[in-house]
Amino acid sequence: MMVVLPSLALALLCLLQAGAEVPVQPGFNAKKFAGTWHVAAVISNCSMFLKMKDGMKLSIATISFTPEGDLALKLVWPLLDRCQRFELLFQQSGQAGHYMGMSAQEKRDLHVMETDYSHYAIVHELQQNGQVPSTTLQLLTREQDVSPQILENFKELIPTVGLTKDILTVLPKSGECQEDTGHH
Q1: Which stretches does DSSP call E strand in 79-164?
Q2: How far apart are CA 6 and CA 25, in angstroms?
Q3: How far apart are CA 148 and CA 4, in angstroms?
Q4: Cα 42 vs. chain centroid, distance in angstroms?
């Protein structure tokens, strides 16, 4: 199981399509974007995501920004027997709303494509780890409930990032891991 967990984090965060210009929220405001979000829907061509998507539940993402402007992401995912935590740091790219994460094994590109800051955000990530690049699109919401209109807007973006709606997963609500939003 320990091998699967880092892979799960990678699968959940796979983003960006190679060579594609991904738009970002005009006038992106990091201060308004920071805070707690629920990962309400995910679509990805990551092989690990595709294997695990049917068992996934709504999770919590806590986003903060370092004094340097880098994006710190804490995720809490309900698994079968516990709450799994992941922490990632993405560096500023020089363009507001675009962040990069790099390690010895992988490169990630994260774009905040669209947000109204108070209800929803659509985040696009491209991950390259020596294999075929994978693309992920995530719908983040401030509340657990997703409005049909926001979900419809999310679905309309799916073809623009090279994915097909048949692999979309709207994550079921979960009372699990709600009391711990990653402040450890």
Answers
A1: 83-92, 98-102, 107-115, 120-128, 134-141
A2: 29
A3: 33
A4: 8
- Cβ neighbours for 146, distance < 8 A, ≥ 6 positions apart: 40, 41, 120, 139, 170
Q: Which structural domains are found in the chain, ordered by start?
A: 25-170 (2.40.128.20)
- The rounded distance, in Å, linking the Cα atoms of 3 and 77 is 16
Q: Which residue matches tokens 């959940």?
A: 12
Look at residue 51 in the predicted model and tell me its pLDDT. Answer: 87
* Amino acid present at 7: S
Whole-model pTM: value is: 0.84
121 or 18, which is more confident: 121
Structure tokens at 99: 């962040």
Question: What is the DSSP secondary structure assignment for residue 173, as one 8-state letter?
Answer: P
DSSP helix/strand/coil, 72: strand
What residues form DSSP beta bridges with 72? 64, 89
Amino acid at 85: R
